[in-house]
Amino acid sequence: MSVLKESTKLTTSNISSLVGTGAGFDLMRYYTLPDFLGKDAPYLLYYMGKNMARQTSISSMEELYEFFQYMGWGELHLVKEKRKEMIFQLSGHIIQKRLNQKLLEVDFRLECGFLAEIIGQITEHTYECFEEKNSKENHVEIKALKG
User: Are 131 and 113 spatial neighbours (Cβ–Cβ below 8 Å)?
Assistant: First the structure.
């Protein structure tokens, strides 16, 4: 059951009015969902990200970066672009805290799924995204590979 009205798309302007904390979101993401979904949780989180992206109205990279910040997902930047690959860096205070906490094993599958779908919408190509955590430098590298 969707709580969004059919005509309502998520945008940076309407999500900025939502109040939330990363802690509650992380507990759902890393405790509750894996308990319900088992070993399939990372795969389903990826597709949840893609589904969420289909419900958004983002038409530029600048809007994408702003959306990541509003969602509390960190600061996203394109650091390298090749013919069949884009490399993004996800950083900031929130990423540093997620990478350095000792309570949970964190992943960025939801963010990867969202990013793959939005880049696909913007460029009109299919992408798959994969993350590599760098705890020493407090960032996550996300590779978007053109399909």
Answer: no
In angstroms, rounded to a whole number, what is the distance separating the alpha carbons of residues 140 and 134? 6
- pLDDT averaged per 10 residues, the chain (length 147): 55 60 72 85 93 94 94 94 97 92 86 98 96 95 97
Closest alpha carbon to 32 in 97, 104, 98, 99 = 104
Domains by residue range for the chain, with CATH: 21-146 (3.30.1380.20)
CA distance 118 to 58: 7
Instruction: Sort 69 into a burial class: Cβ within 10 Å, 0-12 / 13-18 / 19+.
Output: middle
| Nearest C-alpha neighbor of 76 from the set 19, 145, 10, 141 | 141
Neighbour-count burial of 136, counting CB atoms closer than 10 A to its CB (0-12 exposed, 13-18 middle, 19+ buried): exposed
- Say how many residues make up the chain: 147
**Contact assessment for residue 121 and residue 58, using Cβ atoms and an 8 Å cutoff:** yes
Enumerate residues 6+ apart whose C-beta is below 8 A from 113: 45, 46, 47, 48, 49, 50, 51, 52, 53, 129
